[in-house]
Amino acid sequence: MAEIVKVVVDAMGGDNAPVEPVKGAVEAVMEREDILVILAGQSDVIRKELAKYPNCPKDRIQILNASEIIETAEPPVFAVKKKKDSSIVKGLMAVRNKEADAFVSSGSTGAVLVGGQILVGRSKGVERPPLAPLLPTAKGVSLLIDCGANVDARPSHLVQFAKMGSIYMEDILGIKNPRVAIVNNGAEEEKGNALVKETFPLLKACKDINFIGSIEARDIPSGYADVIVCEAFVGNVILKLYEGVGITLIRKIKEGLVSSLRSKIGALLVKPALKDMLKTFDASEHGGAPLLGLKGLVVKTHGNAVAVEIKNAVFQCVQFKQNGINERIAKQLNQDKEEKAEAEV
Amino acid sequence: MAEIVKVVVDAMGGDNAPVEPVKGAVEAVMEREDILVILAGQSDVIRKELAKYPNCPKDRIQILNASEIIETAEPPVFAVKKKKDSSIVKGLMAVRNKEADAFVSSGSTGAVLVGGQILVGRSKGVERPPLAPLLPTAKGVSLLIDCGANVDARPSHLVQFAKMGSIYMEDILGIKNPRVAIVNNGAEEEKGNALVKETFPLLKACKDINFIGSIEARDIPSGYADVIVCEAFVGNVILKLYEGVGITLIRKIKEGLVSSLRSKIGALLVKPALKDMLKTFDASEHGGAPLLGLKGLVVKTHGNAVAVEIKNAVFQCVQFKQNGINERIAKQLNQDKEEKAEAEV
Fold this sequence. Notes:
Two copies of one chain form a homodimer. By secondary structure, chain A is of the alpha/beta class. Helix content of chain A is 47%, strand content 15%. Chain A has helices at residues 19-31, 43-50, 76-82, 87-96, 109-120, 155-171, 194-205, 232-257, 261-279, 307-323, 325-344, and strands at 5-10, 35-41, 61-65, 102-105, 134-136, 141-145, 179-183, 210-215, 227-229, 289-291, 297-300. In chain A, the strands form two sheets. A six-stranded mixed beta sheet of chain A has the order 3-2-1-4-11-10, sandwiched between helices. Chains A and B meet through helix 8 and helix 9 of A and helix 8 and helix 9 of B.
């Protein structure tokens, strides 16, 4: 039998806690036998939720009691240092202490990012651990790297992001030789801000990635590249605008569909097909956003994640663990470092 | 009678030239009597197009012969310097020499931006002229400032963008006390990259704008602010991603609508209502993107603009001229400069 993977799920994080995280965790262990889920949070609340699922395999669901909750609005560094008995801090500590393989949370992005770096710690050789969500595209998904909390990156950070992203897309999503592009304000090589201009030749010189050049934001949704490299401020704009334009456009379309009797009848007929189609444009089917380059696995799911996203994030962790992504990333980046050091001697 | 406003329209620029620019110009002069349009480009080509409209008022349509065409792919600075007999250079020179009030082009964005700065010239006091397109939102439109070619802006540039954008939205779109926000990676004041952190308190201290703080990219499409201030690299990402997500999503929806017989029948019923609704999410109804802070008016329309956008851009120029926006901008920015100089004494 395959080795059991232990995943801590933050039962108190996100808009739909504790209902959806607990439901997602239960669904994960019911669907696969190689998973043990540890629900972190207030044990009485979790026990009450678990009571809804009398048939779930109790030997593969544990509770990690944590009395405190970190709210989304709290300053992350302060919250992580202060609330030692929160689900986020205890979950991350379990990963640090090798009591669990991974931590999944829909809670405060800032706290998960800060906690991941402070408590779990960076792998040797990793300069900055990026947060890398998947974006839905016309062809599937692309990895947007970085959307973390640390902005104003250096060129060497972006080069590491490109390498980590390539390993992730190849090993977790099975994309052979993933196409890597850097976000730019034009397709030509001379375009870009100071950071991009400095990074471009470094990426071009990388032998271990399939660098295809610049990507304009217009071409992101079409699936032009598999790994989309950018600095976190720009990544944040891309990620959030993607959601914002989608939400507003779909709302406009819904308004249009109910604006007349004729369109209302039509809406009833198109609804199932439209729903199926929009589902293909939904990245949550693939799980959450991993925080790459740490000594353990941390995955951030959307603040409004429902059970299916949590479940997929747990599955993602299993694959992550089985493929040894963290080890591969650490090995790759250290190898680069050694080569660089040798070249300098 | 109102003073006649003279607008040069680039008849050779954009994907649909010469057909759509000429059509838009003709429609503009037929709809309003206070406009004279000068079509810049190869006169034989223009004359042939104009022959399609025997009833147009010939006394208010002139031709400015220009034998050369600047292609979109050409390096802008080189093209503007080399092709002195192009429609872009000749149109801009007409504005510079006060032979025309404004220039409208769907051609090379780079050439229009570079040419606008070099040939028409900055107004006194303007540090950097921004390109400011209108974005469609759930409530109407917002001005995105800057999307120009000069990236890596300084805080003082962003402050000027905020002021120019406020004047534009108030005077041209009639929005009283327009809400100004700076693009940021979070709503809290301590968020941001180095540029945003440095700019935020400067905007907060501005007495002549209605600064409402940070805007996250997610909130742009909902119409949370009227003037959206950012550095041009980020502006470019926002503008192009807006288009890209919209195109991909609408394509997905169309695929959904024709995926089954049932949905095809429904599609016929919803089509008119959907079309009307999506039209409200189309900024081209408001014209093109002005290049603000110049000594004359320059408006850039989309590369794929059709007649209605050209026509609206021409109308936009009339309003621009009648409200004396350029003079207002120059006055405001110089007043700031004088106040600053006095304070320093």
